[in-house]
């Protein structure tokens, strides 16, 4: 059993068709604490979606569901959270943010949160 990892889902949505919706539910079902952050108010996995930039501590993982074209506005927020790692889900790959994170000692990984959870590698 993997140890619980406090995970910030950036790009969280209350739309069941979105991968971020599925990820929030799957993370919670696997026992991880979920902090959903998105651009629209709503609920996912029984949690309110933050539309601001909550000042969280002890974030293990930021999992991205925001395309690279929209990520620069989030750079400072993501990096200031000082997560242990940032997961770039398919379609969110961004060499610039990866480099900035690595310069701060933050691990980066291009991988799908859903796949990692389903194979026990999260």
TrEMBL record:
Coiled coil: none annotated. It comes from the Bacteria. Residues 5-116 form the CoA-binding domain. This is CoA-binding protein.
């Amino acid at each position: 059993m993997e140890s619980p990892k406090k995970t910030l889902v950036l790009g969280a949505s209350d739309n069941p068709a979105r991968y971020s919706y599925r990820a929030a539910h799957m993370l919670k079902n696997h026992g991880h604490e979920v902090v959903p952050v998105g651009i629209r108010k709503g609920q996912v996995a029984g949690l309110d979606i933050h539309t601001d930039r909550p000042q969280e501590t002890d974030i293990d993982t930021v999992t991205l569901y925001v395309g690279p074209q929209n990520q620069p506005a989030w750079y400072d927020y993501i990096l200031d959270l000082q997560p242990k790692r940032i997961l770039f889900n398919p379609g969110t790959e961004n060499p610039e943010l990866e480099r900035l994170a690595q310069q701060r000692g933050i691990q980066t990984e291009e991988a799908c949160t859903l796949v990692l959870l389903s194979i026990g590698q999260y």
